[in-house]
Amino acid sequence: MEEALGGTVRQIITIQSGLPEDKAKAITKSIKEAKFKAQGQIQGEQVRVQSKSKDILQAVMTHLKAQDFGLDLQFENYR
After folding, report:
1. Is residue 58 domain-resident?
2. Boundaries of domain holding 43
């Protein structure tokens, strides 16, 4: 942090958009190892998880939140 005008401070940060490829592979591997009836696939900078049941998708979300991938996960629903 550095001092700015008027007694305020300023900090420069970098923002990451999307998932790095190695993290996306780790997420899909974690889903496969947990043996959920769901399929995870990498689409660009996202991981898409598909299943027939909403309950399974919610279980996958809970499982992924419990893991430590070193980044914040966001979940979206396009239904």
Report:
1. yes
2. 18-66
